[in-house]
Amino acid sequence: xxxxxxxxxxxxxxxxxxxxxxxxxxxxxxxxxxxxxxxxxxxxxxxxxxxxxxxxxxxxxxxxxxxxxxxxxxxxxxxxxxxxxxxxxxxxxxxxxxxxxxxxxxxxxxxxxxxxxxxxxxxxxxxxxxxxxxxxxxxxxx
Length: 142
What we know:
- By secondary structure, the protein is of the alpha+beta class.
- It contains four helices and six strands; from the N terminus they run H-H-E-E-E-H-H-E-E-E.
């Protein structure tokens, strides 16, 4: 029987409707994860944990389910933004549905910077979209 690490257990729960993104962030931060990377092409999550006492960073790679299809889609910035708005508002019920939506918009992976409070989505040709956590981000000048 396969025993999952605590971090792998969090990633396994992400695929159920029981663990929305804010709870995922809290659970990973509690385990020392400061950032993670999702690569849809390889079906891998890489979690980076910081050991404050030693100042070292460790990594853990976790297989994650691949969404239904990974097209070589053209980058659609409005599609990426709409998918994010839909999941934030609860219109997209599961992480799997969200993954499929952003993949259809040309996303091939993303970096979630938990302590930096942002997610950077990227496409196959280097296109980027930065999404700040609600309430975070640079101060806007009037």
